[in-house]
Amino acid sequence: MMKILFLDQSGKPGGAELCLLDIAKTYRDNCLVGLFADGAFKELLEQQQIPVQVLTNQAIKVSKESSLIQGLSSLSQITPLISKVIKISRNYDLIYANTQKALVVGAIANLFTNRPLIYHLHDILSLDHFSKTNRQLAVTLANRFASLVIANSQATKTAFLEAGGNPEITQVVYNGFTSKNYDIDESKVHQIRQNLEIEQQFVIGHFSRLSPWKGQHILIEALTHCPENVTAILVGDALFGEEDYVQQLHKQVAELGLEKRVKFLGFQADIVPLMKACDLITHTSISPEPFGRVIVEAMLCRKPVIAAKAGGAIELVEHQTTGWLVTPGNSLELAEIINHCRQHPELCQTVAQQAQILASQRFELTKINQQISQLLIGVMSCDEERKRLRKEILTAEQRR
Ligand code: UDP
């Protein structure tokens, strides 16, 4: 079995990390996950018996706005990390970079060790989220050093190609999910609703880290256009320094007098029972979502879902068949669909049922992991072929 060195810059469990967790499980006897920061993600990997090592204790500072000069100076900060990765990667067959900074380090390691590099791209490389320099850096490094780019949706792939990415090395693979994990005993649900004092309410769930582009404020705004018994639970926390936004959300709730109708539940490691306690799940990102794990998770929980019509969400939801799509940032339209769902519970149930069946087929983890494994095997065999040819050429030259 091939040995893989996975690299990820984050110590926190965002969507990209949760996706990696599911991929790395398959390789737990032959892999190492190298992280560039300590945190709860490391614990999740350990719980799954996946070998993990934090490779640096120095925070890597590359902001969205960073320029090339700042980028280069941060490169000098990470020299010890790079040397470590080069050394470790000699014991592995493949380097699998799961984030942008991991790509930078992985590309340099590839240069020194010749281990094939895979880049799993979880971001839409648009100027909403990346500086021009960082976007260019990602594309240039991927084109020059990666043997394969795995895009987490067609939308992610399109943005990568538009930024100059090489289509020949780019493949779309969706995130995988174990559908039976979302099919839990629902006896706890009543208790949860009781504890949260939402038994008599129509409960809307929002499951996302708190961040301006995730658009929790849009849902809060939408509540003002819904009857009093419509309540929202916001599950998630500011993961990447968005504390100002959290303050803003609390202020918005207070100003609109919605204290009783909006509950901030913070980050929850097990979202399934809470999703089950909701009547409806909303996804309200105001910039295109690269994939949108929560949308699939809502479907697998058999809950109707309303998602913002952009990016990967369009590939996940078929409007009115497996959920609803609304214009990103439009709270009035969101409220209209919420009210429509509230008034048509049977329709919602049918849609949620259909979505559950389709999602459990389309995104089944074993199937997705097989796709990834096939791609990695392909990379390895190309690499062996390349090495064999190089050897042949060298021997022929020596004979001459
Ligand atoms: N999530 C979680 N606990 C929370 C909030 C979110 O475990 O309190 C999970 C959520 O279930 C999903 C992931 O975090 O699997 C977020 O992935 P998504 O693709 O929706 O967004 P990203 O964070 O990657 O932008």
Summarize the structure in short.
This protein is of the alpha/beta class. The chain has helices at 15-24, 40-47, 68-77, 79-89, 100-113, 132-145, 154-162, 187-195, 216-223, 243-255, 272-276, 293-300, 313-316, 331-343, 345-362, 365-399, and strands spanning 4-8, 31-35, 52-54, 94-97, 117-121, 146-151, 170-172, 202-207, 230-235, 262-266, 280-282, 305-308, 324-326.
Would you kindly provide a written description of the structure presented here, covering whatever features stand out?
Helix content is 47%, strand content 14%. It has 400 residues and is an alpha/beta fold. It folds into 2 domains: 4-176 and 365-399, Glycogen Phosphorylase B (Rossmann fold, 3-Layer(aba) Sandwich), CATH 3.40.50.2000; 179-362, Rossmann fold, CATH 3.40.50. The strands form 2 sheets. The protein has a 7-stranded parallel β-sheet, sandwiched between helices. It has a 6-stranded parallel β-sheet with strand order 10-9-8-11-12-13, sandwiched between helices. The mean pLDDT is 94. The structure holds uridine-5'-diphosphate. The site of uridine-5'-diphosphate has 17 residues, from helix 1 and helix 12. Residues 14-16, 18, 207-209, 235-236, 267-268, 271, 291-294, 297 line the site of uridine-5'-diphosphate (UDP).
